[in-house]
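the two lines:
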Amino acid sequence: MRRIRKSLFFKLALLIVISSGTVLAIVMIVSNYNLRTRILEEQKKYYTSLAAKSAIEIDQKLFKAKTIVDKAAIIFKVTNPTREKSIQLLKNILNSDEMIGGSAVALAPETQFDKAGFQMLYAWKDNDTIKYADRINPEQDYKSEWFIKPYTLKKDIWTEPYIDTDVNRMMVTYSTPVIVNGNVTAIITCDLILDSVEKLLMEVELGHQGAPVLVTNEGRIISYPKKEWVLKETIASIGKKLPDPADREMMKNLSQLLRKKQSGNMRLKQINSSSFMWFYFDTVKEADWRIGFLIPEKAILSPINDLNKKMLIIALLGITALLIPAFFVSHSITNPLKALCDASDSLANGNFDAPLPKLKSNDEIGRLVMDFERMRIDLQDYIKTLAATTAEKEKIASELSVAKEIQHSILPKLFPPYPKYSGLDIFASLDSAKEVGGDLYDFALLDDKKLYICIGDVSGKGVPASLFMAVGKTLLKSTVQNVKDPAKALYIVNNELSENNDASMFITLFCGILNLKTNELTYANAGHNPPIIVTGKKSFFIKQASAPPLGAMPDIKFTNETIKLPEDSLFLLYTDGVTEAMNSENKLFGDNTLLEVIKNNPAHTAEKCIVNIKNAVNHFVGNAEQSDDITMLCLSNNINNNNTLHDKNTPDASIVFTNNKSEYPRIESWLNQTGEKLNWQPGFLMQLNLALEEWIVNVISYAFTDNDIHEIEVRLWQTNKSVRIEISDDGIPFNPLEEKHTDTDSPAEEREIGGLGIHFIKNTVDVFSYKRVKNRNVVIMEKSL
Amino acid sequence: MLEYKIPERLDAVNSPDVEKELLSKISSENPQITICDFSDTVYISSAGLRIMLVITKVMSKNGGKLILKEMNEDIYNIFKMAGFHTIMNIER
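prediction for all of em together
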């Protein structure tokens, strides 16, 4: 929720900043451009007029001097003065203007010197006095610019400015010819000290970055802040020394502009820098000089920069001011959204009663809240319905799983079931396709040598099948235990099941009784799959008469058949869940595949045999759903290893003694030695001792009715699991197992003495069996180590 | 009161002698209480148990009683197997 609010405000703020910033930027750029143009225009007017004004001021100074000299020339022409008068004329000139530092009158070479009394006179100011002298070397002077130019041109001229080396001041000379009858008779000059011009230039207010420039029309520097250039360089000569061709070109252009035009302006790049300067200039008409001002553009445009700063601050303040309402607007959107988010969170957590934010507006948010409310109510209803349905389903599911547990619990599941029968190996498994199924198997010992086995499959699946299966299984077991005959049992059960079988259900069933001593199997089959006999060499289905399944119709006669199970064979019962297991391509596992699997995976135990087949079926079925119960029962019985005489095996210990009570100690010590030899625990030895003594006392006391001497033989075998003792005598037949139950509950006074020994034997050893073989009583005791 | 020490083994070999000796002692001394001490006994068979049953009956007939004491776990288990632990006074 925090994220939503943040991003919404952020987006809004970003939008405002970008859009208003763009507008403001455009406004600033446009106004900047206009302002710049206007300011440059204003500045141009200002500095141009300033240049014009300065030019006029200088011009006036020059003009004043010129007028004085021109006047003197007229006087000279009219009066044709003598030496004295000429000196006076020069003195008058010098006195007329402060700027005039010196003045000369020079007669043309062809003029009559004797009449005037001089050839070339020069007067100058020396502090406050005026001195004069004849020029020492007039021939030299006749070649000077100040003389030769006005003389030949017959018009007045201004010389190039120069430094007077006597006074070390910059000066410029004005020369005007005196023309009589078209002939130049004399030249009159004045030397103007340019200090005041320079002072005037320095006093022009240009700001601290501006610089005044005074040049001749040829570009020679008359005045400039860089003193080393003065009178020594021209703009063109400075330009030629610059390294950058662009700068050189620029200086050349400037030089040409100044020569061609009397006033104007030019934008210049500052030398060795990227900034620009403006140059505004006008003309001092008298001397044809150019007076100009160099102003840095930065200085000109500095008002714009100030303005920009102010505008930027205003813009930032404006944007900030815009963000405040944006913040509130975004909050007004996100607050209900946040409340909605909270509500949906608690909704997601299963709290469907969480309150929704109250409707305040009819806008999109309001509509969203309304839709959300509708969704909440729908969800509530849906969840209620779902909960009810689920509860119902769970109830059924749990009842089904209980049913499955009950159904499985009626099947024997403890393996090995009869550990005392070490030669007998049984294993069975039932995997239901649905929760409860209709397959069944069963086995039980009918007596010490008869084992009942059965396997069956009820038509259909699910609860009805499982109920029918439970009935059939229970009925068959009790019937078989009574009649001990498969065919008879099937007949009875069939009649029982056929009666009132409204559902028309039926069970295919294989029922057999195996004689554990002979491995002869008597069996009857009610429509069930033929079992398989698995031997090392080959495996085959046993042959059988066909008969209908149980429950189909009453009064069916079933027939017993007998087969002797080969030595070292496995006997496999299964339901059609195995052979009719279906893969995703709807192909059946089949009888042949079953035989193949058995052949290719030789198994020595019943469990291994079943596991092999199960793996093969699972592999065959793959991802397809299990279509039917898969049930198997497998057994093998080694008659030599099972409840029989150990004739073929050499015993680990044996003793033969006579029917005399004096033999007791000898038997006892024999057993002690045997126990020591075979590493028995003292408790184990004591219990075996007890069982053995009880039987031998019994034999010696009761087996022999004559007075002859009889031999009693005891043989003992030990395996890693148990000890087996076989005691045989040639006395009268006596089966201890048929002895009635010994009374261990009555008060001492009512107890019969005797019979306790058999009771002790039964309680001490795990296996106690008796048989009469060739007129001998043979008793076998077996006790687990 | 008669106290009698039962031998290490009480089996078919020696039980006739033990029975004879005990019965003669009881008939001569006629004790109210007969105590059989099993502290040395490591083995007993049904023959031995039979003696204890006989003595119990003899003692109760005369209004007295038989007490069996100091028997080890194995011996007690044999008494228990026979159900004698419920009808005899066994002090352990």
